[in-house]
Amino acid sequence: MAAERNGAGSAGGIVDSIFSVLAPVHREGYLFVLVFAGISLILFAFAGRTAGWLGVIATAWCAYFFRDPARVTPLRDGLVVAPADGRISAIEEVEPAAELELGGGKCTRISIFMNLFDCHVNRVPVPGRVMKTAYRPGKFVNAALDKASEENEANAVVIETADGHRVGVVQIAGLVARRIVCFVKEGETLQAGDRFGLIRFGSRLDVYLPAGRQTLACLGQRAVAGETVLADLAADEPQRQGRKS
What we know:
The protein has 4 helices and 13 strands. By secondary structure, it is an alpha+beta fold. It folds into 2 domains: 2-65, no CATH class; 79-232, Glucose Permease (Domain IIA).
């Protein structure tokens, strides 16, 4: 029986892995996938099979980039979940950007860097009401650099939870990313894990916790949007340390 359960578990894991790759394409990616597919057909017709198959590979990558897999979000008052897939590239105590209007002095900022192979659909970190959205034009330096938070094009969303905590999440364009998409507006009520935006082709998201709150995440950790817990606003646990193994 144990072997059967292990076999079933392994099979289920394989199926989950397949569906994570073959996830539906987000509507924001439809046009891009069609363009890539059209170029592939042109390459087959005028540049030969090798070029055409390279176009097919590029089309498959484009569909993979715009994938929108289902996620299972933990639900409990106080939990802050990751808004993006990617590597946690920085955890710092900073003065929040003025446009966030968070107040209260320095707070913990958690930066998540998304590479070209990460899912780029962004998800809401906490349940609550959208108090503010603010777009800022800027540069397109490498999103992995610290200065990207202050200098790059960005779009900020501030959400207030039912118990009065305000959490800021900022979409930041990168060296390749040239298009930030935000689906939400001020006054909307959101649930943790809801899709709220997307950034095209490599970028970064910053999460600003309320002053005095520490993260449960570790530098270098891989985050999964809508699933990985970044912080617990209902607890006073100190910042965790990680070990690479």
